[in-house]
Amino acid sequence: MNKKTIVIPYEIKSADSFFSRLKGLMLRKEPIMNEGLWIVPCNAVHMFFMKFPIDVVLLNEQKEVVGLYADLQPWKITKPLKTAYSTLELPAGTINRLEIDLGSSIQFTL
Fold first, then answer.
1. Tell me: the pLDDT tens digits for 52-68?
2. What are phi and psi of 88, to 5 degrees?
3. Which of 32, 73, 92, 108 has the fewest CB atoms within 10 Å around its CB?
4. Please, are residues 25 and 89 in contact by the beta-carbon 8 Å criterion?
C-alpha cells in the first residue's frame, strides 16, 4: 500500500503542557482559519466551551493518521483512541480539502 504524505499548509502551534492542552482552542470567539494546534500527548478531545467546529486528526508517534473527525461540533467529545499519541486540530473542512485519510503521513512545521 502506498502511503500518502500530507503537508499541512498552516502555522501550527504546540500545546504540550497540562494547561495548554487543557485550554486548547477553548473560549476563542472566531473560528481558526490558517492555523492549527498540535496537542501532545493527547488521544481524545472535548469541544466544551467551543464556539465553532473544527477538524480533528489523531496521530500515532510517527505522525500517521489513526483517527479522523471532520467538522466536529461544539459540545461533542471523541472517544480515547489507544493508538493515538497526539491530536492535530485544524480548521473545519481541512480533512476533505487536503484529502487526509487513515494511514496518511502528516507533516507540519511548528
1. 999 999 999 999 999 99
2. -110, 115
3. 73
4. yes
> How far apart (Å, rounded) are the C-alpha atoms in residues 42 and 109?
18
- Range of the structural domain that residue 101 is part of: 5-107
Pairing of strands 65-72, 54-59: antiparallel
List CB contacts of 84: < 8 A, sequence separation 6 or more: 42, 43, 44, 58, 59, 60, 66, 67
3-class state of residue 97 by DSSP: helix
Domains in the chain: how many in total? 1
Extended beta strands in 1-110, E state: 5-7, 11-15, 35-39, 54-59, 65-72, 86-91, 105-107
